[in-house]
Design a protein that fits this description.
32% helix; YaeB-like fold; five-stranded mixed beta sheet; 3 helices
Length: 124
């Protein structure tokens, strides 16, 4: 049962970085890193940033933070409904100028890491 005290000390859910997602994010421009980092922290505290939208076709509770910065598109994909942790599945700069679709190699990688994250969450 939730009490009023639960809102005074929000629980910071831990992040689990899958594969090279953290290294990829660290390669983004510093300002883009900070913006995405702030949004990840908001999610860790139970919020949902305005830039986050469901990432279709992988599984439920998978979201994409889409950021436009200095004319480039940066994406961070995470799973938020696999237990207590938040799994950062992939971070990448979207290069495609045609259409809004995420390139297939990125989607395949996200699906693979989602599967791995599910297995990790079962042993949490």
């Amino acid at each position: 049962m939730a009490t009023d005290d639960d809102h005074e000390n929000p629980v910071l859910r831990p992040l689990v970085w899958m594969g090279n997602a953290k290294r990829n994010l660290q390669a983004f421009p510093k300002e883009a890193q900070k913006l995405i980092g702030d949004e990840l922290q908001l999610i860790q505290f139970g919020g949902m940033p305005k830039d986050a939208k469901p990432f279709k076709g992988v599984g439920s509770g998978v979201f994409e933070i889409a950021l436009r910065f200095e004319g480039d598109a940066y994406r961070t994909v995470l799973a938020v409904q696999l237990g207590e942790r938040i799994y950062v599945l992939h971070a990448f700069q979207k290069k495609s100028k045609k259409g809004i679709a995420t390139p297939k190699p990125d989607v395949d990688l996200i699906k693979q890491r989602y599967k791995e994250a599910k297995e990790l969450a079962e042993h949490e």
